[in-house]
Amino acid sequence: xxxxxxxxxxxxxxxxxxxxxxSRLHPAAAHLIAPLEDSAASHLIAPLEDSAASxxxxxxxxxxxxxxxxxxxxxxVAEKNEKTTGSQTHKAEKGNSVVSSYWGxxxxxxxxxxxxxxxxxxxxxxxxxxxxxxxxxxxxxxxxTFLDKVAYRTVKLLRVPxxxxxxxxxxxxxMMLETVAAVPGMVxxxxxxxxxxxxxxxxxxxxxxxxxxxxxxxxxxxTMVELVQPAWYxxxxxxxxxxxxxxxxxxxxxxxxxxxHRIVGYLEEEAIHSYTEYLxxxxxxxxxxxxxPAIAIDYWRLxxxxxxxxxxxxxxxxxxxxxxxxxxASDIHFQGKELRDAPAPLGYH
Length: 349
Prior knowledge:
It is a single chain. 65% of the residues lie in helices and 0% in strands. It has ten helices and no strands. By secondary structure, the protein is an all-alpha fold. The N and C termini lie far apart (95 Å).
């Protein structure tokens, strides 16, 4: 009997030693394995003469084996968690977002036509388009009414400080222009949205049309930022101009939508002029015709070897479309109608 007991004790001590090694490798399981390192177990090695001591030893050995089984299960769970965490970290390092299964929201796998993964989250392939470059760039609304003349002269007055500050630095000028040009569509779409809710009326698609314009102007800005890095004082100027212009245009649209849209129409005419001068400087070699940013190539579906000149050309065409939309909206109001009475120019690029 003593021989069997001694064998059991030696086996238990060997298991305890192995458990101690596991505790060093896996600290999370240390609290379960700690009992195995208790030096008090050494008294079990002493000779055992009576059956009562043998029974005590058998009971202790059984508990020891159950503890070891629990420790093994804990280690398996810890290793599984480490593998899962490592996999998620690897995905995060690759730029893929780790999605929580609780919310069930995940981005589907989207690819280009050539099978490569779509790299942008700010717009999707179905938001891209080929700009209509055949649009008439020479169109001009001749001011006739009093409000037309107010709008025209207001825009001409605003051009003076812009010309003085930027002169022929058309990259910075375009960046500043787009921070302002993206405001009217958002303000108009927001106010039409609230009006539709108050009156329980459809907007005729004009909410979406104006928000499309705001998004398109914002994409112009995202493109220009890739080409021109603004200085700190230009960033400060953007904050100031945007704050002033947003509040002024918001009040103007509430007071007279016809005047607000007419001003935007004339602003777009000035934008066409500015981008035309930009292209002249590129053709003259005063501005380097660098490669087009990747975001511009995907957004306007440009060829892979597109250049800055191609980007400015499509942006100018966009401004011409915005010119038409806003002059059209102002004409609707001048006729005493609401925008919802006329079809909205959705997808007009």
